[in-house]
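Long-time lurker. I teach an intro course on protein structure, and each term I like to show students one example going from raw sequence to a predicted 3D structure in token notation. This year I'd like something fresh instead of my usual example. Would anyone be willing to generate the tokens for the chain below so I can use it in lecture? Attribution to the forum is fine with me.
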Amino acid sequence: MKVIALCENDIITVKKNHPCDKKAFEFKVLRVGSDIKIQCVSCLRSVLIPRVKLEKNIKLVNGRTPQ
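-- Reply from a regular --
Happy to contribute to a lecture. Here you go:
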């Protein structure tokens, strides 16, 4: 399995939307490690999610397909 290169302050687009009022698909990366902390761009809530689970759901990183 190939690891997707993520850095802090990257904006990622995921396949499944966030269940906030605006149904956002974009998140900002706050912390990177074995667990990744992301923040919803529209409602500013943050979520800590395992890297393996997040990498399966990423569509775009900063507007580009993940390498």
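Some talking points for your students: Residues 11-61 form one domain. The chain is about 10% helix and 35% strand.
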